[in-house]
Amino acid sequence: MPNVRTPDADIYYTDSGGEGPVLLLGHGFFMDSSMFAPQIDALAGNVRVVAWDSRRHGRTTDHGAAFTYWDLARDSLAVLDDLEIETAIVGGMSQGGYTALRTALLAPERVQALLLLDTEASACTDGEKAGYKAMFDQWCSDAPIEPLVEALAPQLIGGDSRESWAPWIEKWTTSDRRAIRPAAECLIERDDVVDRLSAIEVPALIIRGEHDMSAPAVKAKQLYDHLPLAVPVLTIPGAGHAANWTHPQPVNETIAAFVTMVETGWL
């Protein structure tokens, strides 16, 4: 699969191909582009799905410089440039949503619509920063990783199926656990873009899991209230933070309908 080289990173991405509308997807923290396999499988043929790996995740490599979600937004645009795609529906899950929002603010002419999965627009509170720092200090230490990943899976993915957690637990336990530190700093120190959302004048679909505590309902409502062309929030019953992974059918059906409405001008 292709990589696109920028001054700061070599960005890995996959492309389902085809002539359909383009959906560019960014994954959540500790995940990679393979988390969108259920969407690629369901939408391929009607939607051209391009999914990419963020810095310090998956198969993307970088040159060690600190980065922000604005830098990742530029990375996503570099992927579109490499594919010679002028405009796309830009989406993401959790931190991928942070990036998608900044992509729309950075290059509004490139974004047809937004797909926001279990995400938010605000910065970390002081309490959240302290909690994240404690967790990442443990993660990047020599402490046994097994208890950490066992606690992380239900929180980060959701649901109660060990089958759905297993691929990620395997990746977490076999990866270079210290490599995540620059991405952690990016997450913890992200800026607040809530007051800028009114400038994003494209249709926006917001989907969240019913039991998602990382991006709770109040955060989804905040997105809906501030994005001028957002459609009503879809809550997936029984799902947690990675609703697109654990409950793909209702997510895929909604995405397909949304893409059709964007393409036909119904939104």
From TrEMBL:
InterPro entries: AB_hydrolase_1, AB_hydrolase_fold, AB_hydrolase_sf. The keyword Hydrolase applies. Keywords: Hydrolase, Plasmid. The keyword Protease does not apply. It holds the Pfam family Abhydrolase_1. One of its GO terms (molecular function) is hydrolase activity. Residues 21-248 form the AB hydrolase-1 domain. This is Putative hydrolase. It comes from Rhodococcus erythropolis (strain PR4 / NBRC 100887).
